[in-house]
Amino acid sequence: MPKDRTSRSWWPSALVGLCVVASVLTGCGSSGQGGPVTLNWYNFPDDSGALQQAADRCGRQSGGRYTVKYNKLPRGADGQRQQLVRRMAAHDEGVDVLGLDVTWPAEFAEAGWIREWTGAMKEKATADTLKAAVQTATWQGRLFAAPYNSNTQLLWYRDDLVPDPPKTWADMLAQADALAEQGKPHYVEIQGAQYEGLTVWFNTLVTSAGGTILTPDAQAPSLGPPAVVAAGVMHDTAVSAAADPSLPNQMEDQNRLAMESGTAAFELNYPFVYPSMKANQPELFKHFRWAPYPSVVPGRPATVTIGGIDLAVGAYSRHPDLAFEATLCLRDRENQLTNALEGGLPPSLRSLYQAAELTESYPFAADVLAALDNASVRPQTPAYQNVSIAISHTLSPPAGIRPESTVADLRGQIEDALGSKGLIP
């Protein structure tokens, strides 16, 4: 994911001193006499420089009305959310634009921490935008954020080991078994650690089997037979020859490194693995290919869980009109293209998937778009953090899953999670 750069401040030194003395939960992003307004944008730490370029570009395009200060959140998603929750709970007026993981808008909207997008601004924020991405930014039929980037997983494989990529999970495990018998690299790299990635894996399998984790009103667990099927796939993978011994501790980057080490034949991961393989293992890269995510039910395409970041305007911002305008600029076509090419993050704008600049670097762009068009979203509820923790805890380690009883236990855990009256700090 996403180098630390410090924006030049326009504040007089006396005001800087006041800001330092002030509470750490208060941002210093208001206007000074004779100078532009400084809008504080809080987002994940980007190592590529794409986000800083977007902030600088939007400041220049504002005609001197505002500048955008890119403030880097902690590297981990939990730390990012924790800082934003604390700032918003303290009614921080210096938070103008928030970069929210796609699972957070419902929580922040329900708490009254972000502003609704309406009228012409809503139309601009949703025009040419992928349907599933808009869904992640919507809560109870109202738009509370503008999709910044999307993300999805594909099946990555080595064609020197696997001439024909598997269409289903059962096919993939059978191919892994056959490779293992031949003494060849055969692991299937997937996120099995007890964290959000495990929830994503389960959600993808449940929806691919035709089910959902929560009921349509998000008031109770749904689960049912599709969840049992999904849990079975996870267990079967974990106890098969396909399982990397490190499966219970693996996240996305460990999967990437394992594939690059040459011990794996398959990898379920995000597009960032493609440029990494190209740079780090050029010989293996010659055989590095991609295909759609394997189906759970033969003939039914997988519904891969959508990822990404949504940009919201803070409820306590002193400059909401400028913040809405800046948000539209930050996620415009030029900035999304830069973010895709330099930051490795798929766009949320549909038309960019046909842009020559993107397809040259993303030869798999059509496959990413197809996955996003058929994407599933994680449960939309203000209690999502509770629900996700319940899922990852109950399903860890995957080898310990007993489909029927584990799903029954999970149902009770989710009921308890939904019954929580407060937000997890």
Textual characterization of the structure:
The protein has 425 residues and is of the alpha/beta class. It is built from 18 helices and eleven strands. The strands form three sheets. The chain has a five-stranded mixed beta sheet. Strands 8-9-7-10 form a four-stranded mixed beta sheet, with helices on both faces. Strand 4 and strand 5 form a beta hairpin. Helix 2 packs antiparallel against helix 14. The radius of gyration is 22 Å and the shape is globular. The two termini are 23 Å apart.
The parts where pLDDT drops under 50 for at least 5 residues are 1-32, 421-425
* SSE topology string: HEHEHEHHHEEEEHEHHHEHHEEHHHHHH
The CA-CA distance between the termini, in Å, is 23 Å
Per DSSP E runs of 2 or more residues, the count of β-strands stands at: 11
Helical percentage = 40-55%
What's the average pLDDT? 91
Give the count of helical stretches.
Answer: 18
Q: What characterizes the major β-sheet?
A: 5 strands, mixed
What's the shape? globular
The strand order across the widest sheet is: 2-1-3-11-6
Q: How many whole angstroms does the radius of gyration measure?
A: 22 Å
Strand fraction equals 5-15%
Helix/strand structural class: alpha/beta
Short synopsis of the structure:
The protein has 425 residues and is of the alpha/beta class.
In terms of topology, how is this protein built?
Blueprint: H1 13-21, E1 37-43, H2 50-61, E2 66-72, H3 77-89, E3 97-101, H4 105-110, H5 119-126, H6 131-136, E4 138-139, E5 142-143, E6 146-151, E7 154-158, H7 169-181, E8 187-189, H8 196-208, H9 225-238, H10 252-261, E9 264-269, H11 273-280, H12 282-285, E10 288-291, E11 307-313, H13 320-330, H14 333-343, H15 356-361, H16 365-373, H17 384-394, H18 403-418
Parallel strand pairs: 1-2, 1-3, 8-9
Antiparallel strand pairs: 3-11, 4-5, 6-11, 7-9, 7-10
Helix pairs in contact: 2-14, 8-9, 8-17, 9-18, 17-18
